[in-house]
């Protein structure tokens, strides 16, 4: 199989953003007297977008009586002004993307498209991707295959010639349901066992080069 397209998750795959996300959540819940969430708690809760993140945090803090919608708005207001205060690409990301120049590339994130675009621009990564699709790009989000199928359609690439790279069960489920090869990264925020059944598992981003080379006819 020749790989013509690689679809990447953003948080936990291309970038380590947990500190900025954690800071935004703590800013939102602080007025309600809740104990701050830790980085570990944040890592375990991200992946399905901010509303889901807030719901998980409120369940953790036994504060489900609070207004999820209002807290989501407060998180996004703060986060939009602190997108890359501490966020950075993972090691080897930039160099590997350069070496993957022959492959078309896209990003599918469960965060809002505008935020994903701004982060990639700020980190000088946007230039590598033809398409950036966020949670507001489609009627469904990962683990649904809908955003993956939409990107395949936009770029006119069949699923058998594409890979999805991610750090969560949501990425792997979306890719698998769309018929893509799945590449799980172990350095991100994925829960234990999330990579079971994946086609490839990599511990460093640069190992993606070996995966792609190994699939060349």
What would you note in describing this structure?
This protein is of the alpha/beta class and 217 residues long. It folds into two domains: 5-16 and 88-214, HAD superfamily/HAD-like (Rossmann fold); 18-79, DNA polymerase, domain 1, CATH 1.10.150. The chain is 40% helix and 13% strand. The chain has nine helices and eight strands. The chain has a six-stranded parallel β-sheet with strand order 5-4-1-6-7-8. Helix 3 (50-60) crosses helix 4 (68-79). The chain starts with a strand and ends with a helix.
What profile does the largest beta sheet have? 6 strands, parallel
Report the radius of gyration as a whole number of Å: 17 Å
Number of strands: 8
The CATH topology of the largest domain turns out to be Rossmann fold
Strand content: 5-15%
Strand order of the largest sheet: 5-4-1-6-7-8
Helix content bin: 25-40%
Compressed to H and E, one letter per element, the order equals EEHHHHEHEHEHEHEEH
Low-confidence parts lasting 5 or more residues at pLDDT below 50? none
What's the CATH H-level superfamily name of the largest domain? HAD superfamily/HAD-like
Top-tier CATH class of the largest domain: Alpha Beta
Overall structural domain count: 2
Overall pLDDT score: 96
Question: How far apart, in Å, are the first and last alpha carbons?
Answer: 6 Å
Number of helices: 9
